[in-house]
Fold these 3 entries.
Entry 1:
Amino acid sequence: MSLEYFLQVFVSGFTRGSIYALIALGYTMVYGIIQLINFAHGEIYMIGAFSLLILIGVLSMLNLPVLALILIAVLVSILYSAGYGFTIERLAYRQIRNAQRLSLLISAIGMSMFLQNYVLLAQTSSFLYFPKFLEDIPLFQNTNILNASQAVIFSATALIMILLTVFVRYTRTGKAMRALSQDRTMAVLVGVPTNRTISITFIIGSITAAIGGGLVSAQIGQIHFYMGFIAGIKAFVAAVLGGIGNIPGAVLGSFILGLTESFGTTLISSDYEDVFAFIILILILIVKPSGLLGKNRSEKV
Amino acid sequence: MLKIESVNAGYREAVVLHEMTIEVNEGEIVTLIGGNGAGKSTTLMTISGLVKVFGGDVLFEGTSLLGVTPEKIVKHGVIHVPEGRRIFPNMSVLENLDMGSMLRKNRAEIDKDRENVFELFPILHERRNQVGSTLSGGEQQMLAIGRGLMARPKLLLLDEPSLGLAPILVQQIFSVIRKIRDDQGCTVFLVEQNANQALQVSDRGYVLATGEIKLSGESDILLKNEDVKNTYLGAS
Amino acid sequence: MSKFISNLRRSYRLLQGVPKFLIQSLMVSLWFAILTFPIMVIQVNYTANTVEWQWGRLLLILFGGFAGSFIWFLALDRKDNKPSNTSGTYSVIKGRLLDYYASHKKLVMAIVFAIILLIPFASSSYFTRVLISAMIMMVLGVGLNIVVGFGGLLNLGYAAFYAVGAYTYGLLNYHFGIGFWIALPISAFTSVIAGLLVALPVIRLRGDYLAIITLAFGEITRIVLENWGEFTFGPSGIKGIDKPGLFGIDLSPRGEIIYVYIVVFLVLLLTILISRRMENSRIGRTWESLRENEIAARSMGINVPRTKLLIFAVGACIAGVAGALFATNISYINPKSFALLESIKILCVVVLGGMGSIPGVIVGSIVLQVIPEWLRPLQDYRLLVFGALLVVMMIFKPNGLFPKVRKSYVFTKEESEQ
């Protein structure tokens, strides 16, 4: 394998990892705070992509300069995804928060089914073309290893990771989120506004997922109502790999997953692409049952 | 300041407290003693809003706390330090203390209170950047109380602060409780299994058994009471 | 009389809440209208470069949202403020029925069995088929109930064992012409092996990690089935699988269906019996203590890993048997029937019915097999409604339809004062 080829596969895997990371962040934050595997999260990613496409389509009729058009569309689609995330939590999860975990899970599964079919029925079942507007950026046009859209994806992911880490460590809401995830009752007794904090968590997760959805669609050039499902599962696998409930873990897991898939499909086979994710998950969990960076929550006996 | 009037409270499967009536006046240290499972923790949880009330009323400074969410009760100035320390394990000592003062806005006052906490518990200042889970049991208890103080409570609810601590630490904790009331005028409602120490540090006491108040009165009188001595003051 | 008054009181309180609900519903419907605007109303035609505005849908959201959220608020209010229902007419009837059942257990069972056995003779083949798939779902439900309900081990890939059983029979039948009755134990065996294989790496894992790994195994199974064409015939599956033989007698097609029905019913009975026996035996109690608190169980001397393996094995065995039944019922299997959706359906059966309760599993299976049939006229909207139903079910009955009531001991005052 030539160095150039190797680097291409590496960069491709890294890009995948970035997208998974953007989705996995939402999974891990929600799990950390209410111990729910939010199956509907992948659908937010998909809805983000669809909203962006629709908005671009509508706005392009207004003859705006391209940059302004894209920016407005991106901003509004992010707002919409945040809205969906917020609504889903209020509607399907808040009532059941204190019931048994399995019921919460089933509600999430139901929500996922509902959203998928909602977009399917309201829009279309076919694959839609998505404008690859990132490729128009005059960067990296001359190299074979890295292209503009990939570079944008990296930078966006890095930026979001930094912002999120700062947010969680230093802001009041961030500390509230951490407190809730470490000891919910105690957080309540300290005065943490539970409902509001949980809503904010969902909103932030939805925003990062929507950004991921928009970016990946602009890179691949097409979207489909089913895209959230498999991406969601993989992102969740990535979050678990790194130790669920743990932001650095989710990111680490995502990159490992992305690289594994990239090299796996190139070197071994592309039919079994989805299987790589699961195999590496099983392997890592055998060796480290709580994930790579996961802390074994010691239970009070 | 705090009035619990004929309260029946508990869980859907079982009512734990029966017709409980307790009064805590401003500036007092009042203690609730009783054996295991008597309902002491449930009493505090009823005040702080974590446990359902089926009958009666809980009044704080004249307003009823029934149906008020626990987060709002904290805003009223009722601070509950639950049993088992329960500090945030992955946060540092400083961050834990910050959580205590989370609802407050005045930076200067918060800093002053933090200084105060470090004065009361010098070891916390030493370990201020250490993560909660690395502290010893006694240090965690101090942190829990310190965190409670950071909210500048009007009423401090302490649940078994001496549990599992070495005697010398127990002494320290109880003298700190005295100090909190004497220096800062904080009202304290203390729930304890260690009846001896609790009655020594408090002004008045109530004795709880199977969810009912059996005795009440001035603490020094209770200390000399025959039944109390036989049942609760045996080993101490 | 007092019942009547308390009902009146309840209605009055509901009415008082109405104006508040109206305003809330209005706001909610506006919110939904804005939220769903891009996806519902805007249809961009990319080839013609035009935009279609589906205003009709907007109205649908506004009115439907309003009506829906109004009903929603009413229902939620009713749920939170329900009085204890031990004196309502419904519960009185239910109580009487249960008493009658308890004292005439054998008679009731005999009648019920007779009815069940006679149904296929009196109904269409289509209806019988539906019942057969419902019963197979019940078998699966009982199996998963043991793993999740009794053992507390969350398995999101149960369909994998189901698939192993089905494909074992399918392949044996295709390649070697092996009949149902011989293949059945073999299917059970291979499924148990699969169960142990899955369980081994998984024993040390906590709840949610267990869930994702079982999901992973489930998906791997499906992907392998789809892609390993030489062995499993890929997406086209295996056709023409034999029905079970009855001492070599030639049966008419209708006779075959009835025969399968009876076989499945007997297997279901057997499974329920085994499950009940285990539940009430020492093994069952071990599993319950494991579910409640793993650490406590371990400190009482229960061999946790071995117990988990056993639970998995039993669950897998049952699923394998169900798989063979499934294969023989429709005579055709392909990977699509064993996808994640199937695992989720089985899980829903267990949760909807009420964890750990067998009547719950039975009702849950009927609900989950029959309702999609009813929804068929809705065509494309089937899954949409199904998803919505799941959410609604969980909100209003989070513990399932027949939550397991723990046997409790009640001490009367005289006893405690002795």
Entry 2:
Amino acid sequence: MPVHPLTIQNMTVAYEKKPVLRDISFQVPEGKLIGIVGPNGAGKSTLIKAALELIPKLSGDAAIYGKPYAEQRKLVGYVPQRESVDWDFPTNALDVVAMGRYGHLGWFKRPGGVEKKLAMACLAKVGMSEFAGRQISQLSGGQQQRIFLARALAQDAKLYFMDEPFVGVDAATEKAIITLLNELKMQGKTVLVVHHDLATVQEYFDWLMLLNVELIAFGPTEQTFTADKLQQAYGGKLTMLDRDGQSALITSGR
Amino acid sequence: MSDWMTVFADPNVQWILFGCMLLGLSSGVIGSFAYLRKQSLMGDALAHAALPGVCIAFMLSGSKSIALFLIGAAVAGTAATFGIGYITRHTRIKQDAALAIVLSTFFGLGIVLLTQIQHSGNGNQSGLDKFLFGQAATMMQNDVWIMAIISLVLIGISTLLFKEFKLLSFDPGFARGIGYPVAFLDQLIMFLLVVAVVAGIQAVGVVLMAALLITPAVSARYWTERLGFMVALSGMFGALSGLAGTFISSTGNNLPTGPLIVLVATAVFFFSVLAAPRRGILSKLLLRASARSQARQEQVILQAVRREQDR
Amino acid sequence: MSTLWIILTGALVASTCGIVGCFLVLRRMAMIGDAISHSVLPGIVIAFLISGSRDSLFMLLGAAVLGLVTVFLIQLFHQSGVQSDASIGVVFTALFAVGVVLVSMYTKHIDLDLDCVLYGEIAYVPWNTIQLAGIDIGPKAVWGVGLALLLTILLISVFYKQFKLCSFDPALAAAVGIPVALFHYLLMGLVSVSTVASFESVGAILVVGMLVVPPAAAYLLTERLSRMIVYSVVIGCFSSVLGYYAAHLLDASIAGCMISVAGVIFLLALLFSPGHGIVFRKWNRRQQLSS
């Protein structure tokens, strides 16, 4: 039996009193591009952070390829939300991408020529080669997001976690990112993406997780992206419009 | 027993008690706005920045007039607020660094001026460092009257402009959108802060003045989620600290008033951290324990249900 | 000779603080130096009361312990929901108040001058020397601050990538397995050590200033962290040299002049920095408008 890239068992996470995630269990299949959707406060980012042991769990277990995360760090790539860092930091694009190698370098080794070359290659993959020397505050939102993506590529992982990579980026970047994610999938890598735009879910992801504190549904998109399951995840906040045979979805309220 | 009763009977001590209470009250009120605007350390920076103003006032006048010192301190403090605002608005330097820059350069400049005064052989400069370290015990009836007027003005303005200050602290962008003179209100709050600092320095000193602006406000935040109540509570905590600190100091153990006021305020803070409902450590621990047991119970039930379904 | 010693001490303080300060400015913790330099007072007094001597070693130890206690308390209150700057403010003023009360409680029996402890005078550095096997090996301050500088350079250069990533993106740092909390306390420990080693001999205000003003000026001049650190050190050293001669000229406080010079350099960077200076930005905007 193959080992799953990510196995979560009976995981509960709570800030203060209210559980943000309640008794979540699932197994992620290998080589899939997986979207995680749900309303605000559904615990999407929390799920990623808890899996990466960035925040404590109340109960339950998370395993990466069958082992605790601490032993498998090198197999995992992580793209945090873009606003989580200070873009005025005095450093350039290439340097940020090279940070993706820091975990592999260990305690004392410094990034050198090899890391630089790899970082350049990753920058090229996201179409940002000519911006290598650019100070990061002078990049647009979409370019900053590409840099973060390149950094995750530099981590050279088998399992990727991406927290809202499509927020605040232009259409061209969005397309470039999704192309890249599909390439990763072709290479047999597993990608989990926190996403908020229901209109593009069917186009982007082959597997889907519906989350609202509890796990509502997890499976191939065609089986999970259904009206009743979405209703269940979003409650009364969802209006569905069927237009031109395509279902476009509008979330109303918060 | 009769020992501490005599404290209250002494008219001098009465004035000091009254003065410190007012100081605590007004700095508590204005401090809570500073706290909500994430400018808690502004008071610290402004208190340090007053030094060159005091020195220049002394150099220009050659006299040890408290009124001139106050004016000099207020001018320097206002200049400091402009400096801090300018640096944060026009460069990528964040507020904390701007505060520290202004604090240290103004204070450094003040020390240069202070040594100039000392070396110029001016005999009566000794009042300057007393001014900086603060001596509540020397507070006179006149000082207390000034104090009373200042507190009245501070509290009056805070009450009148309460809703403006509230919006400004919460969402300055929106305030600008609906046509508030944000820059003016911003500078007004700063100015009130300067006034509170300048009024307090001679009583409790530079460093401890910062505490009167921060500690009551932080303590008050623990008890309530409503701004109006928080401001009132913060003022109350400040007044209480002023009273209790002065009282302990004047019961004859010869301890300085300023630090005692701060220590009382800190005690109130510790009590708030521990015992406040919802935000306090004790109630959080209780909540967490109950959440944990609740989560466990839910899990047991869920698993039972699942087993039931699997069957 | 004494001129050399004073300038050297100033430059050593400026270098130590300039390196550590860059990380403080980038992590938005610039006021922590101010806080530590005040809150070590009770540590110094307690060390003095226990040891009964004005021996620097005991005082340093007391101060260092209180420095770490300060950092720990700030972190504790911050985690329990107090804004970080307010948490700094509460902690250092409270500890300072304890210190002042201790001083005034025991001030009759001992000879511990508050001004001298807090606002040490760099002009006296050359006369406070260390004797080793009967030979005068130079001022104590030079040795103390020099050791702090060595420690700083050693730690920052060995763990440069960790300090950098923890400052830029702590979430990723934690995710790739860097012990973020350890490096936080390591940095804070360095701040404590540099503050404590410096301020007894040169005064708290010089330390607070050198921790922030040169790094902030450097921050406006470059886009690379490594260069920012170098610039910061250079600006700090330059300020101490120029400040010393300015003080000589004006017959004023040496530490005050050093800070004032650093302040002037910051002002120049603020106005005329090629990338971030206000004058150049205005000029560029005008150029764009006219074209």
Entry 3:
Amino acid sequence: MTLELRNISWSVGFKKIVRDVSLRVEPGEFLGVIGPNGSGKTSMMSVLGGIRPPSDGMALLGDQAMRKVGRRNLARRIGFVEQQADTSDRITVHEAVSLGRTPYLSLLSPWSEIDDDIVASALESVGMGNMADRIWHTLSGGEKQRVHIARALAQQPDYLLLDEPTNHLDIQHQLGLLELVHVLPVTVVAALHDLNHAALFCDRIAMMDGGKLIAVGTPSEILTQQNLRDVFGVEADIETQHDGRCHIRYRVRNQMEV
Amino acid sequence: MIAVLSSAPGRRTSAAFAALVLLGLSLAFAASVGETAIPIQTVMDTIANHVWGAGYDVDPIDAGIVWNYRLSRAVVAASCGAALALSGAVLQALLRNALADPYLLGISAGASTGAVSVAILGVGAGMFGLSVGAFIGSVVAFAFVSLLALQAGRGTGAIILAGIAGAQLFNALTSFIVTKSASAEEARGIMFWLLGNLSGVRWPDATQALPMAIIGLLVCLWHARALDAFTFGRDSAASLGVPVRRVYVILIGVSALMTAVMVSIVGSIGFVGLVIPHAARFFVGNRHGLLLPLSALIGALFLVGADVISRVIVPGQVLPIGVITALVGAPAFALILCHGRILR
């Protein structure tokens, strides 16, 4: 089953935030989405996740238009972790992750032991198995983000969409979180701010600018000196390491004299 | 309490049964207390006579007081408390705002404008009473607020701000009508009505209020899981498979309708819709499968109790019930706040 956007646009009022984006997510890959602030990453992700319908074009899940698939079925296929989703409600970690079972529950199929098992294993797979009873607001930023991922995993999705999952985390937790997501047996689409993280973890990278998708390709195809200058407005040297991964070394334009 | 209410369907049925018994007892108690105290046995006999024609020998005056005055009044109080508390719980969950209450949508302000239009300006030329006017007023105000919120754009902030604007507008209209056209006596009567008044309530009112509360409870319970999904906001609910827009329309619509019906019968009783859901959360947390029925139960019990107090606290005089709910509610709310378990 594939996830695909065909010439989609998305606008707020008369302002087009995303214009004419076509993108096909291949099963099993880790696709990074990069672009400067305001380039439409978040909006594109929410169309890809089926949270907002596109104003133009088609969003498809497995060759079927998303609006025909239906919200509930989408939620069983696609897990979505927002940039910053917080709550002032006093809930436990277990309750937060249990929300992930929402698309499977109804009056005829109420909560069962199977759901308990799924929630427990989702918590286990983000390394929070022993924190089920903790209260949400006592968690650190990294822990909250991992709970969100566990919640998305409890949806048993084929696709996991993450919108800047490492924002506001310290470097250890940033890398830990991406490593965690990388080994999960799901297709991942992640909007990432740090280009070196994108280079480290992504199989492919989609680059956005001004609401358009500029290019899609492997990290070494996308992360070029030219692209960094044109899209991000920074000067950088790209080093290719012995494992084939590339690394970006930024240059400050007016280097201070030492 | 938490242990009793948790999970297992068997326990849930017995908890629901216990709640109904508790509610029945409170109604019977409310019917026995008053200026003339009537023994609880007489109350039970009267109810039995009316409900299944048991044919007990009851003094007809006592029976009249119990059945026609106090019991109908208690039933309306219970329905009203349950409906307002439910609306509050639902709106707080949907709008992600701890201060949301049923009157946020401009409903009570619209109701008062409708009521004074009928009572003072004579709109409708005696074709309908105060409560019909209040109902129409609240529906108009709610329509105004909804349209404003839709125009103002997406997000929960738009609804709250539109509600504030609507409430201010309709309150100003009410004040304008009262100060321009009302006599001192009329103004006092309107004032009394605005603070909530169960004095004139009889069975015809109860047959509107009770079904509305029950339907409202069922609709809200049907959406309990959807409300849970709003814990992390609208987009998060959408990503969990909840049809956000439909849930908004249904639940805000039902809350508005419940509130409009209750306000048109008893006036705007403050504080119940705001405070009771927080109190209920204190006991069972945020899962709406438990929170909604418990809010309804506490709301019903609270308002029945407040009505009893309003009838007996000043001998020979009935206080507006809104005064009691706020006098009791405000300190209770302060207590809960200081326990610090609402927001943090």
